[in-house]
Amino acid sequence: MFTIDAHLDLSMNALEWNRDLRRPVTEINQRETGLTDKPDRAKATVSLPELRKGNIGLVVATQIGRYVAPGNQLSGWHSPEQAWAQTQGQVAWYKAMEDDGEMAQVNDLKSLEKHIALWNDDQPIEKKPVGYILSLEGADSIISVGHLVRAYKYGLRAVGPAHYGPGRYANGTDATGHLGPKGFELLKEMERLNIILDATHLCDDAFWDALDYFNGNVWASHNLCRALVNHNRQYSDEMIKALVERGAVIGAALDAWMMVPNWVRGMSTPEGMNCNLEVMVDHIDHICQVAGNALHVGMGTDLDGAFGREQCPYDLETIADLQKVPALLKKRGYSDTDIENMMHGNWLRFLRNAWK
User: Fold this and answer.
1) Stated pTM of the model
2) pLDDT digits (tens, 9 = 90+) for 149-190
3) CA 174 to CA 233: how far, in whole Å?
4) How far does Cα 1 stand from its chain's mean position?
């Protein structure tokens, strides 16, 4: 089944993990055998051939470059200008993949419909470029609001104002605090440019501020449920209801610590915590129950988002195994229409409405 994944850190993997994503996952992992600089070495799940194998023809692909102030122990750049430069290198990688015929940018309704038609034709899937919608995870690299206009011109169509910790525009996961003047200024310009607000990673204070202030299109690219795993990274039922009221779609993530409670990084294992794709469906089902329908959830895996097979469902070898999800949804009683919506239809409806 044609599938859309609303959150993949492809350029980060290409440039910071030094992975040639044109190669099969097995080859990427073989080349990383023996490397110990990152915990997920030789455990990758994502590459462009695997996306094609899994009929994942359209993704939301990120730029990411965090600024960290003195005293902030998170990893990141020491100035917004350095963070901006990092994201420009990431844009250059996406453009190189376009030049090589491996990827195709989707940034408006015309390019969306053209790309969907391409993936529905009879051409061999191996020859089809993977479509990508460019998103910025954490806005720290936007030096000034004027830089947002520059980013829009090269294709940026969604922005998550925060990532982990305190940010220049908004506070994110494990942080607290309301939006300040810079955050509101960013949201105003995003609304003017019709850039989608990605509510993922916003701390609770900033989440409610953003939804109250921002009148544009809102989605949550990769999130799960606080009712099942009690952490501020997750959405409470109240937050899910608010997103549903805004017409948002929430992408279901596959990071094990978000999927099952009491995960201990570096110690827990997917097998030991019984973390499989059924757990993802538990979270999907919870969102559907809160929403009252299956129109507000999709795929947003975040696979290889600084973790690999050591921290994702044990029954997923590569991202192509997303094709196991429809059968699991069917087993839960979802109709064929519901399943098609959750695999791609909800994201397409959202985009067609946002870009009409």
Assistant:
1) 0.98
2) 999 999 999 999 999 999 999 999 999 999 999 999 999 999
3) 7
4) 20
Q: Give the tokens for residue 331.
A: 């087993």
Q: How far apart are CA 345 and CA 341, in angstroms?
A: 4
Gap between the Cα atoms of 351 and 222, Å rounded:
16
Inter-residue contact 300 to 223 (CB < 8 Å): yes
d(CA 44, CA 188): 38
Amino acid identity for residue 252 in this structure = A
The residues that bridge with 197 in the sheet, in sequence order, are 159, 218
Rounded (5°) CA angle 40-58-215: 100
Distance CA 266, CA 256 (A): 12
Q: What single-letter DSSP state applies at residue 214?
A: -
CB 43 within 8 A of CB 310: yes
Fill in the amino acid letter for 44: A
pLDDT, tens digit, for every residue of 285-316?
A: 999 999 999 999 999 999 999 999 999 999 99
Tokens, residue 15: 């440039």
